[in-house]
Amino acid sequence: MPAIVEIRDLQKTYDSGFTALKSIDLDIREGEILALLGPNGAGKTTLISAICGIVRQTAGHVTVGGHDTIAQYRGARRLIGLVPQEINLEPFEKVMNTVRFSRGLFGRPRDDAHIEKVLRQLSLWDKRDAKVIELSGGMKRRVLIAKALSHEPRVLFLDEPTAGVDVELRRDMWETVRKLQADGVTIILTTHYIEEAEAIADRIGIIAQGEILLVEKKAELMRRLGAKQMVIELQHPTERIPEQLAGYDLTLGKDGGSLVYTYDTQGERTGITKLLSDISAAGLQLRDVQTRQSSLEDIFTDIVRKDS
């Protein structure tokens, strides 16, 4: 799959001396959903702002659809839709006019059929004559997306698009993002809700302290770094792990009522069969056994902690 956004050695240092981005290299593939994860201050918003031309990079270059974002700014920016974190809308303007005006800002001819399509896609058509001030927070975020899509961009940046949105509406937004991808839009998503990235992203990028730590297909990342845990509940609590079991990666659960075994899902052998046999030989009686797989949040937290 070809790259629609190419980033090479992108750097940003502010006048204060703070370096927000350190030699970023990244290819964003056409038609994918890339989730960019990172703690507060990691550089996510600065990276998006540099690609969109809101922040001027100190070094490096970015192309969008083959257009350099500095030398060919208008050509590059015309291909980009941006949904910022902040809700900044004219409160007394009607939804239809707000979205139509955004299309005009990019020099696109009036196309009410396209505006209607976008509003219907975002469940805003019934609100087209409502003033922005009359809308809920979730609906205002939909208007921001409609504005970003009004000029028919090929790349859509969503910077914390579901911040402050309830769980039900958040899931509706996920479905909207999937539909946009089906229409051929490339989507770059930053989010604090890691389950959001786990639910809809094709690839995961992790950024911390202005550096990209990894970019990988979600499924491969979870398979490569995901550990599995087996919780072995005991018939009778134990005060310590028997010496016979010292060779296993075991921890004692709460109140000594269980043993927690962590094992590598990629290993040829998990060691579970021998472990259960050795537990029995150590005089411990099993009551129940449960397993759990590492979530994307577990993996993300571990990677960022190691980098800090």
UniProtKB/TrEMBL annotation:
Residues 5-234 form the ABC transporter domain. Gene3D superfamilies: P-loop containing nucleotide triphosphate hydrolases. The keyword Amino-acid biosynthesis does not apply. It comes from the Bacteria. PROSITE patterns: ABC_TRANSPORTER_1 (PS00211), ABC_TRANSPORTER_2 (PS50893). SMART domains: AAA. Keywords: ATP-binding, Nucleotide-binding, Transport. InterPro entries: AAA+_ATPase, ABC_transporter-like_ATP-bd, ABC_transporter-like_CS, ABC_transporter_ATP-binding, P-loop_NTPase. GO terms for molecular function: ATP binding; ATP hydrolysis activity. This is ABC transporter nucleotide bindingATPase protein. It comes from Profundibacterium mesophilum KAUST100406-0324.
